UniProtKB/TrEMBL annotation:
Pfam families: Aldedh (PF00171). InterPro entries: Ald_DH/histidinol_DH (IPR016161), Ald_DH_C (IPR016163), Ald_DH_CS_GLU (IPR029510), Ald_DH_N (IPR016162), Aldehyde_DH_dom (IPR015590), ALDH7A1-like (IPR044638). Keywords: NAD, Oxidoreductase. The active site is at E262. Signal peptide: none annotated. Its EC number is 1.2.1.3. The lineage of its organism: Bacteria, Pseudomonadati, Bacteroidota, Chitinophagia, Chitinophagales. Transmembrane segments: none annotated. This is aldehyde dehydrogenase (NAD(+)). GO terms for molecular function: aldehyde dehydrogenase (NAD+) activity. It is an enzyme of class 1 (oxidoreductase). Homotetramer. It comes from the Bacteria. Residues 32-490 form the Aldehyde dehydrogenase domain.
Amino acid sequence: MLESILEEFSIKETNAGAHNGRQTIPTPGELITSFSPVDGQEIASTCFVNKDTYDAIIANAVLAFQEWNAVPAPKRGDIIRQIGALLREEKESLGKLVSYEMGKSLQEGLGEVQEMIDICDFAVGLSRQLHGSTMHSERANHRMYEQWHPLGVVGIISAFNFPVAVWSWNAMIAMVCGNVCVWKPSEKTPLTAQACLHIIQKVFEKNNVRPGVCNLIQGDKEVGAWMAADTRINLISATGSTKMGKAVNLAVANRLGKCLLELGGNNAIIISKDADLNMSLIGAVFGAVGTAGQRCTSTRRLIIHEDVYDDFVSKLKSAYQQLKVGNPLEAENHLGPLIDKDAVINYLHAIEEIKKEGGKFIVEGGELEGNKYASGCYVKPCIAEVENNYAIVQKETFAPILYLIRYKKLEEAIALQNDVPQGLSSAIMTLNLREAELFLSAKGADCGIANVNIGTSGAEIGGAFGGEKETGGGRESGSDAWKSYMRRQTNTINYGNNLPLAQGIKFDF
Ligand code: NAD
């Protein structure tokens, strides 16, 4: 099965370090071999881009921008429409490759490709709606309006956990806005990126889009740092850990460039005494164990009202007993492996820290062993009762560890939810309108995403996605997030016979 998918996306034969949207570019850089966390098998290799190839790719992107921004936006939209159509055809194959290279369940792999299709559809509509406003001028015979122009080259640095969807959120919107893009995927998932560029190449060839509009460069944080410092890149959109975001932000600020940051979360669901506990259970369990706890929106903390605490915890325990961990391509398994052995070490270290700080495990964790788990990347999803102020609880551990915290009053629960450095996703489970509205008010959750009767995990592409505080403040995907990929220009036009100055200033000579 996999062989044919690799062949379909021309992955086995490339060994390439870069792609300019029309062809793969062999690079004499360091070889990266991608091993699947599912079974530890080698999938294929590709090369890190070297500095010369990197410079050539960026220089070519700068040239490509001059042509691409002259293509009318609805025509750019039509190209994105064709990418969406091809993604529909390739959904099954690309979804399987995502699942095998990253380790998420096949359902989630397919869901990720569906998100790519959805953002293509959104971008097509947007291509006719890149609207500015008009204003009334204070001067007679004057007209004022604002318009939006593309920025230029958009650099996209992405994380391993959404290896393709996050790129598409950025690339499809950036390209429809008239930008060209350069993508550096995670060094942990290089092959799914190669497959995406294969799809782009087919559409670009058919439409004679010049090389350089949509580029791929493979590499690690060194290549990411080249991008952050590169004055030829007008916007850096970076998704990953807060540590990475701080480094990128500093480098981009140093050249007064633009940055869009999508960083770590530490997401909580408040479960009120007025919650539908069965619905809450689905939201909490999927949020905590989906993608093996490796989503930026994964549920890390449950803040549960004391009146329903025991009842809910017993439901949770019985749900956890039914969870199956194993090959994510097999439909019966709820969660697959962590991305690599380092992630397992981090998970085990977090468990030690929780114990040291006084946390009590009500569902024990640990590494899974045996033939089924031969890659060494499988762990048990676990649950611990903790205090919100433990140092380990304040951090994002990218693994299926769920923390439980009790509360008495909603104001206290909201304060606990907000009392972490991150601010991505939050939720309340309640059938009480007053509670729901307080949670959504300015006195409520301080996150970029706040949900009612839905968990924290996952989001639809139609809304602007992103978070506050150490999550970085960026917004991507739907709503008016497209404005981050454009520059605003205010225009004032005088169609009269004299030149009055603003604010009535007199200047006669
Ligand atoms: P990571 O920070 O290790 O790497 C992310 C990307 O940044 C990779 O491409 C990596 O090569 C690059 N990178 C790392 N250090 C860099 C540096 N100093 N300069 C330039 N580039 C650098 O993150 P990861 O382990 O791949 O992903 C997990 C993290 O991503 C979690 O914290 C998760 O919450 C976050 N994430 C956030 C969102 C969001 O939308 N908020 C979405 C997905 C993942």
